[in-house]
Amino acid sequence: MRKQIAAANWKMNLTLQQAETLMDELIATPHELNENQEAVFGVPFPYLISIKNKLAGKKNAFVAAQNCYDKKSGAYTGEVSAEMLKSIAVDYVILGHSERREYFNESHAMLAAKIDICFANGLKPIFCCGEPLAIREADTQNSFVETQLKESLFHLTAEQLTGFVIAYEPIWAIGTGKTASNEQAQEMHAHIRSVMANQYGAAVADSISILYGGSVKANNAKDIFGQPDVDGGLVGGASLVAADFAVIINSLK
Ligand code: PGA
Known about the structure:
Radius of gyration: 17 Å
Mean pLDDT: 97
Structural class: alpha/beta
Bound molecules: 2-phosphoglycolic acid
Low-confidence stretches: none
CATH topology: TIM Barrel
Largest sheet: 8 strands, parallel, barrel
CATH architecture: Alpha-Beta Barrel
Number of helices: 12
Shape: globular
Distance between the termini: 11 Å
């Protein structure tokens, strides 16, 4: 059975002191993860070591970087490599978030290269995809997302994609309080799974965890995660409140 994952995306929020307090509060708030469930914390680079240490000994709880560079090492001032992340025992790397595609011009090809370098260093990518409002309004979201998948993932092997993690985040639902309906989420997640099945076969597609992102809150997580092809969520705003994120973790199937 594929993994069910509650992934926090703290984005560029919190001081170290606030981040540590948030994690302490969350650890103190009752929440439970069974063997098939994971909590992943996508925290700013400077806090990865500290938050990783706080999670030491906690079952099925992992840290994620929010990005990495696509080059091995060298004269790239200000960038962080996959090898550096590996050296501090980071588990996951969020790649291709719509904010990075939009503000930092991350292309399909660059994301393909970032995924490769993560795999080369034993890091697990969380690959984000999703359409802007205009594409949804034109009802062309399926082909839009299909292109994102094809261009950045289809060079990978079936083995690499077995147990892979994709996050579908419709841009119009991110930080807007406007969640995709359960039906809209399920429809797109099923589409993503069928795109992967057509290329790699049903067994690979069925092993992929597809997370939904975009205004997941404590009060809607259970419904969204309850959809058959939704395997948890990538959560921004609500992951900054310990009590809310604990409820979201407890809403996993
Ligand atoms: P949100 O962000 O939960 O605040 O909408 C989700 C994301 O961008 O990952």
